């Protein structure tokens, strides 16, 4: 058994994986423990436990999924400089005062935990100033290699389907 020098009242040794698998019904009060250690040290020697309930973890992950990016004039307006959307970003708002194109790229569907929304919130998207959304590799959304949003205040939810490495579109 090792002694945790930082907080000796926390789990004192053995391995977390020695605990039996949970087989009950989740009700949000379950306590999950995460063990972390400084770089170069083993968990047994310097592990610090962090505790969180499953309900709080779910709330945290939900909030991460609603992180937003707002694009303004001059940002990502050329095909060679698309906004590459982080898998935890849930909203991409286009708030450009001038009519210019916007380019966005999604990575592999299997890496996304949210259904990102891409939407023009300024009303300046129109013919010649469309939002162009592309995907990595051979992925598509509803059969489209590039999805174009070309109407003022237009937008789509992009729903990842990890099992088949593809996307589907939803109304915004």
Rg over CA atoms = 22 Å
Query: Would you report the number of β strands?
Result: 11
CATH topology of the largest domain: Jelly Rolls
Could you tell me how far the N terminus lies from the C terminus, measured between alpha carbons in angstroms?
55 Å
CATH class of the largest domain: Mainly Beta
Strand order of the largest sheet: 3-5-7-10-11
Structural class: mainly beta
Assembly state here?
single chain
Helix content: under 10%
Q: Estimate nothing, just give the exact number of structural domains.
A: 2
The biggest sheet, with number of strands, parallel, antiparallel or mixed sense and barrel status, is: 5 strands, mixed
What value does the average pLDDT take?
83
The geometry reads as: elongated
Tally of individual helices: 2
Order of helices and strands: EHEHEEEEEEEEE
CATH architecture of the largest domain: Sandwich
CATH superfamily of the largest domain: gp9
Strand proportion, as a percent range, falls in 25-35%
Unreliable parts: none
């Amino acid at each position: 058994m090792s002694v945790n020098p930082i907080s000796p009242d926390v789990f004192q040794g053995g391995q977390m994986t020695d605990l039996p698998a949970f087989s009950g019904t989740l009700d949000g009060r379950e306590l999950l423990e995460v063990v972390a250690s400084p770089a170069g040290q083993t968990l047994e020697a310097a592990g610090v436990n962090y505790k969180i309930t499953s309900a709080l973890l779910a709330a945290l992950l939900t909030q991460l999924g609603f992180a937003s990016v707002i694009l303004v004039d001059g940002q990502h307006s050329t095909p060679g400089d698309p906004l590459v959307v982080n898998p935890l970003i849930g909203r991409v708002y286009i708030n450009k005062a001038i009519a210019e194109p916007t380019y966005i790229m999604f990575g592999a569907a299997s890496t996304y935990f949210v259904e990102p929304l891409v939407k023009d919130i300024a009303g300046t998207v129109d013919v010649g100033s469309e939002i162009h959304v592309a995907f990595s590799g051979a992925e598509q959304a509803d059969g489209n290699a590039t999805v174009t949003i070309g109407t003022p205040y237009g937008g789509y939810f992009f729903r990842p389907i990890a099992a088949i490495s593809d996307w589907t579109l939803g109304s915004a």
